[in-house]
């Protein structure tokens, strides 16, 4: 717990900065700048890199992925210079910014890349284990959503096994719950066999 009002102010400031950084809709901005229109009208309607890839522009999808990672990574790295509590707050609020951006009526993306960036800065061994899980599931089944849900579900387990720190595990658990909740529609489509697979062979029209 914060020991003073000053500490509480630092935590609140780091949470706010992380939320605002996370809320920058890079996927939407990049696709509009390249003339692809509103990415929310394409595919899943998501503003993240997976949906940007459906434009056929792999470079744009990669740029979106890196920027979405960065907007989770950088705020947590900055917050960690103060102490563990501001870092934890930033790790929670950066993905929330991506999921609930005020500029888009609080209707954003799934938060996977931003959560991954935050986790890299907050607990990189956990992030590495979760990323390996994502890769394995994505390669085996070619469903980005299934990979994301599996990686998110496994992350709190990795956090406990690798750190044995209840506080860190709770932070990772909160992030995982939010990410899985945002994939509820994808989970329903997976059950019905209607979810779109990752298609790396798609070419630009």
Secondary-structure topology with pairs:
Layout: H1 5-22, H2 26-33, H3 49-53, H4 58-80, H5 84-99, H6 112-122, H7 124-141, H8 144-163, H9 166-182, H10 184-192
Helix content: over 70%
The Cα radius of gyration reads 17 Å
Give average pLDDT, whole number: 91
Shape assignment: globular
Low-pLDDT ranges: none
Number of domains: 1
Strand content: under 5%
> What is the terminal-to-terminal distance?
55 Å
SSE ordering: HHHHHHHHHH
Give the tally of β-strands.
Answer: 0
Structural class: mainly alpha
Count of individual helical segments: 10
Walkthrough of the structure:
- The protein contains ten helices and no strands.
- The chain is globular and about 50 Å long.
- It is mainly alpha-helical and 205 residues long.
- It is 71% helix and 0% strand.
- The protein has one domain.
- It has helices spanning 5-22, 26-33, 49-53, 58-80, 84-99, 112-122, 124-141, 144-163, 166-182, 184-192.
Q: Summarize this, please?
A:
This protein is mainly alpha-helical and 205 residues long. It is 71% helix and 0% strand.
Name some characteristics of this structure.
mainly alpha; 205 residues; 10 helices
